[in-house]
Amino acid sequence: MSKRMGKRTIVLEKKPALTGFASVVGQKEGEGPLAGRFDFVADDDRLGESSWELAESHLQRSAIERAVEKSGLHLPDLDMILAGDLLNQCIGSSIASVESNVPYVGLYGACSTMAEGLALGSCLVDGGAARRVAAAASSHFCSAERQYRFPLAYGGQRTPTAQWTATAAGAAILGGKGNICVTHAIFGQQVDMGVTDANNMGAAMAPSAYDTISTLLSDLGAEPRDFDCIVTGDLGYVGSDLLLTLLREDNIDLSPVYSDCGNLLFGPDQDAHAGGSGCGCSACVLCGPLLRDMQDGKIHRLIFAGTGALMSPVSVQQGQAIAGVCHAVVLERSGN
Questions:
Q1: N or C: which end of the chain has fewer CB within 10 A?
Q2: What separation in angstroms does the CA of 33 have from each of 1, 11, 29, 188, 264?
Q3: pTM to 2 decimals?
Q4: Pairing of strands 164-165, 180-186
């Protein structure tokens, strides 16, 4: 029996449950509009480590360990860890899990990594290849700045379209019993509209979000109002406006139920310019406020669509266009 619906959507017959989730953030993130809705807020963004990269690994490891504990499990109970970040060769994630003694699969989907991990993990659990899987993602402002732009001491000017890489991590455990389940998943195709400005990732990612969300709605035979919330991560203010415009051209009005993790994480007085970004941005917003609201019965049906700008420092330096990708999962809460 086929598990495909429509053009690209995967139907998850066993509806893998999210049994535990956790979010860990830095100081700036903990002072924003979502303050008090994370599991842990660091009082020092270096977290006692000797480098920013190790601090990021610390964030991700802490998120995974907290999610496992909240699931009533221990690390050895996991069959697999699916994790990723923005750093070269996903070194932040590999260091985070190197001592876990759990099979590790490194993912790179840029800011779409959390959604990619949830989609892959759900397929593994639904197909019987794994019983319990951790999906995790992280980013750190300082490690990302060093890799993609300039050392912090350089003091480079940020453009109005630039987004602020979140110092954050999120993790969720799939498999077992729970009242929040993944019912559908869709993997996005790359969309390249020729954007070359690394400081305008929203413009690079919005067309891929349009492609994935419109395809998912069509495959499900659904309309935006069939969901309590449709959230992207992380288009920021520029990409969000572009997405809504693109969908309106197809007579799809997403605005009544739409949010973006990059817009939710930081307030207007925090100087984040076009909003938040980074793998940890959507991961911490999902595994913090959004899943807490689902757990409390405030949200019953949610589309989580992670968006990523697929670039590297070398590709940007060579003037290559930045392709966008968007992976998504449908989350549903059972009961009242």
A1: N
A2: 46, 35, 8, 30, 7
A3: 0.95
A4: unpaired
